[in-house]
Amino acid sequence: MVKYLPFTLLLAFFLIPNQNSAQATDPQIYKIIDSISADRIESDIRKLAGFGTRNTFSDTVSQTRGIGAARRWIKSEFESISKDCKACLDVFYQKKLVTPEDGSRIPKEAYVVNVVAIQKGTKYPNRYIIMSGDIDSRASNTMDFETDAPGANDNASGMAGTIEAARVLSNYKFENSIVYLGLSGEEQGLFGGEGMAQYAKDKGWEIIGILNNDMIGNIEGVDGIIDNRSFRIFSEPTPPNETEQERNMRRFYGGEVDGISRQLARYIHKQVETYMPEMNPMMIYRLDRFGRGGHHRPFNDLGFAGVRIMEAHENYNRQHQDIRTEDGVEYGDVVEGVNFKYAEKLTAVNAINLASLAWAPPAPTNVEIGGIVEANVRLKWEKTKDDIAGYKIYWRDTTAPQWQYSRFVGNVSEFMLEGIVIDNYFFGVAAIGKNGHESVVVFPSGTFRK
Ligand SMILES: [Zn+2]
């Protein structure tokens, strides 16, 4: 991606002095990137791997081994971060009982316990942007809760990144709430995410999105490719719980690749290209890896936006494997397989998106589009009562993966783009704060006529 570097820098340079441009860069974002520490991430990964196994059904009594010791340590880390920011984090366990009837990978009854740390927003405390990693790990056999399963990359890396993001972002104040989440029961069937997503729904949380981090530390693929720049953002095309009517609307008005999770993925991609041009973010147009699962899915199931952030090159010898050597090949998810500098980069990817979204105003609601048999396209939306800079219309070719064109249109609730034909592009609208931070782009959910 080095070849794109000069162009991106040039773009960023020209955007800075333009007050009307919505994507003026924010120096605080660079400061956040610089504050994320590979050393602290390394130390946390070593600590987590040191609990021997973090299988969901492992020991909960020991102070040194098993998932109980691991979650108590994670909770105490969040509590000590909170102490340093005048109790800015609300830290608690969220749990749910599972029994063998709940799934084929549940050997015995146990509580699936998540660790939650919430940094309350100053203006919109009920609007949440979430970063998650997993507490649990597994050996070759998921049902085996005794054998060592350090899970250094899967997924101590995501957990350590989440803790590190909390350390850095707790030094700032945000308008929206940020949740730092340690989820359990992932390897047994996504039970922690399921419990937490339901908890959020029951509490009436307005979720901006969840950035689920699952394996963010491996740079050496099983095929030998080494790459410390690329990473993947997985997002499903459209929400699975949409109505038959919404599905039918899409046939006539488009939106096959414009669901809420996809818009979140585009947001992350754009932030990274703006602020971390040395990285190569890959938008993957699918829920997750082929036939595989992750903890963003239970959130998607309930209609929340959510993506999976992960390394680009996986090493299957280091995933879900007992530690052993066979025919000269080393197996096992050990600390030596983690690149801490890369985990630092992907943690920064999360942190800058959490910050920007937590500083952004609420996305526009009731976005509608008009312009059938006209030379121009018109968009309208519900204006917020809040004091914001205004709105920005985005559009792109129907075959383009990323928004290509945009226009800041001021603090209005309707706008016509002259000479732009509705048939030839996809459109969306974002809200822009006075601080320059933008909401996720909203794809129209309705149409109107003159
Ligand atoms: Zn796994």
From TrEMBL:
GO terms for molecular function: hydrolase activity. Its EC number is 3.4.-.-. It is found in: Secreted. It comes from the Bacteria. Residues 1-24 form the signal peptide. Residues 363-450 form the Fibronectin type-III domain. Pfam families: Peptidase_M28 (PF04389). It is an enzyme of class 3 (hydrolase). PROSITE patterns: FN3. Keywords: Hydrolase, Metalloprotease, Protease, Secreted, Signal. InterPro entries: FN3_dom, FN3_sf, Ig-like_fold, M28_fam, Peptidase_M28. This is M28 family metallopeptidase.
